[in-house]
Amino acid sequence: MEAKLLYELIWVQGKVAVKGIPLPDIDSGKEPDEGEGTFGLECHVPASIRNIQLSQQNAITSHRQEKEAEKESRQEMYRDCERIASGNRDLERTIAAMLNDLHQKLTES
What we know:
Elements: H1 2-8, E1 9-12, E2 15-19, E3 38-41, H2 47-108
Antiparallel strand pairs: 1-2, 2-3
């Protein structure tokens, strides 16, 4: 029972909240529809829970940054391959032109 209760508690704007229970809209004073939003609880959250949440958030952020860095690295490698391929095409054209010139000179002589 304890694990289920902890699982249903979430951290919202510095307070513990129970997921799925309505939380009034403070700005408009309007009550939400039944079963929407979250309900804030005024209670002390142990530092260990906050530390777990912060470490989870840090892990998620770190993972996203790693994925973004991998994506940028792949894009840079793709651009490098495109530059090499473009250079190879230019080199092929240059060699073909040189061979054509050589062939013409040999056939003229």
